[in-house]
């Protein structure tokens, strides 16, 4: 511990990035596992939505011999349609509702305006979700053809967690300044 204290004294900005980055990765990975567990079992709760396609823009694609409709939001019926999308979104929203206060208070030690931060976090979540879902749509279509759901759900949560983690780290550095809010 003495080494770290000396390092932090000599290089406070680098030490802050290392501490925040390390804690961010740990918390994000725990939340990713939590999302995976939700996503693995929650689609069964939405079976009542039937076998309905739900997605936009629904562009027909053939990738590795698999035909599917590529969507920025939602999934084709072969990938679970509305039921899978509902489960996916519930898992992501619950995960982010847990993640936001931990990242804000514990990792980044921010005491800024919570409503302002929550608004920007929500906007970032929506943009990141569209980016990740557009990639995930192709992943679920192709992987779902070749591996069981528990395997492609691992890929889904790792993809979502990995891409989100990289983008969210820099978003959080901006929206969660350390310390008290500026007056």
Short description, anyone?
By secondary structure, the protein is of the alpha+beta class.
Description of the molecule:
- The longest helix is centred in the last third of the chain and has 33 residues, at 114-146.
- Strand 1 (54-63) and strand 2 (66-75) form a beta hairpin.
- Helix 1 packs across helix 2 and helix 2 runs antiparallel to helix 3 (81-107).
- It contains five helices and four strands.
- It is α+β, with helices and mostly antiparallel strands.
The helix/strand class is: alpha+beta
- Binned, the helix content reads 55-70%
What is the CA-based Rg, rounded? 19 Å
Distance between the termini: 36 Å
Low-confidence runs: none
Overall outline: elongated
Task: Please state roughly what percent of the residues sit in beta strands, choosing from under 5%, 5-15%, 15-25%, 25-35%, 35-45% or over 45%.
Answer: 5-15%
Biggest β-sheet: strands ordered side by side in the sheet: 1-2
The sequence of SSEs as H and E is: HHEEHEHHE
Task: Determine the number of helices (DSSP H or I, runs of at least 4 residues).
Answer: 5
Largest sheet: 2 strands, antiparallel
Total strand segments = 4
Residue-averaged pLDDT: 88
């Amino acid at each position: 511990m003495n080494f770290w204290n000396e390092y932090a004294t000599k290089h406070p900005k680098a030490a802050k990035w290392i501490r925040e980055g390390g804690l961010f990765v740990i918390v994000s990975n725990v939340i990713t596992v939590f999302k995976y567990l939700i996503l693995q079992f929650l689609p069964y709760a939405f079976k009542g939505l039937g076998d309905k396609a739900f997605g936009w823009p629904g562009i027909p694609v053939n990738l590795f011999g698999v035909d599917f409709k590529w969507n920025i939001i939602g999934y084709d019926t072969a990938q679970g349609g509305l039921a899978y999308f509902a489960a996916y979104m519930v898992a992501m929203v619950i995960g982010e509702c847990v993640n936001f206060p931990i990242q804000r208070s514990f990792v980044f030690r921010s005491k800024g305006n919570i409503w302002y931060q929550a608004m920007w976090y929500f906007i970032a979540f929506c943009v990141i979700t569209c980016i990740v879902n557009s990639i995930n749509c192709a992943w679920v279509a192709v992987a779902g053809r070749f591996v069981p759901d528990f395997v492609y759900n691992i890929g889904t949560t790792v993809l979502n967690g990995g891409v989100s983690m990289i983008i969210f780290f820099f978003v959080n550095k901006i929206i969660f300044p350390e310390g008290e809010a500026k007056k």
